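Is pyridoxal-5'-phosphate placement plausible here? Inputs below.
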Amino acid sequence: MIHRIEPVCQTPLWQQSLANAFSDVDAFIEFLQLDKAILPAARAAAGLFGLKVPREFAQLINKGDPGDPLLRQVLPIGAENSPAPGFVCDPVGDLEKSIVPGVLHKYRGRLLLIAHGSCAVNCRYCFRRHYPYQEASAYRQRWTEALKHIHQAEEIDEIILSGGDPLTLSDGKLAELVSRLEAIPHLKRLRIHTRLPVVIPSRLTPELISLLTGGRLQPVLVLHINHPREISTELASSLIQLKQAGITLLNQSVLLKGVNDCPATLSALSLALFEAGILPYYLHLLDRVAGAAHFEVDMPEARQLQDALRVRLPGYLVPRMVREVAGAAAKQPVF
Ligand SMILES: *Cc1c(COP(=O)(O)O)cnc(C)c1O
Ligand code: SF4
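Reply from A.M.:
I modeled the complex. Tokens:
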């Protein structure tokens, strides 16, 4: 028998990675061996929405390739600062729907709780790029208020932890929140939407797995993977453990110009997801958020991609193509 003595207050690896993420544009561009001519525009765009890229994700990016699909998702560029008609700050009308701060009760039966305002990575296309993180991140004092609302809304049987990224919470804080949710009798399912393990695979700790599987609520983990190269060997081997522990694994992607807007990439993504034990769930059309117009794929092209996927893939590997319409009772399918 091997006795291991663990230091008491060791910061978990993933939290160290979070703290060591690239946030300086110059250092990031240097690391990736990119042309320094892009620096002024990158610095200007990062001034509005900061650069944040964990090193694990940076290592997946091909060096010296300004068109790399993983890079495009995280590198601030000049195009973000050009206004585009129809692209606004709160495209999905989240702010007005937030009855209790940090709670989005838009759809029947399920309720979204902003468990934590920050993310491990700043995705340039994100609809939350103008979200008032400051307010949303006063999350913990507000859990009580949110939980009161959920207690009263008896029609809710599924709680969705979102953010930001809920997995930026430590396992201890998450456990505290989950146990408070478990005490609400009408809740049946716990769903977590996260991109964190994709950029820092070591986030999938054994503690997290037992926290998700050890309780009363049925666990669903919805990952956010946009490109097959984001499924690293490390991520895949951690995910297998979640799958074996009985956690339902789904994925949602965003359709992004220059990242995944071709049938070959999207079908490779679905196949790679399935190999890693994940089912494709949604393929979202871009929310029209100010600063992200250069990522938009137009509707006719999106439809063509959808048709191409149906031809190439078994039905269960074709993600549902949807878009978010402010005020609608569910995500709207794209036909
Ligand atoms: C997307 C979303 C959900 C979940 O919708 P599903 O179709 O169940 O995946 C729930 N609440 C809000 C506010 C959402 O934006
Ligand atoms: S991880 Fe998700 S919420 Fe966070 S910046 Fe990226 S897309 Fe937005």
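Short version: The chain has 14 helices and nine strands.
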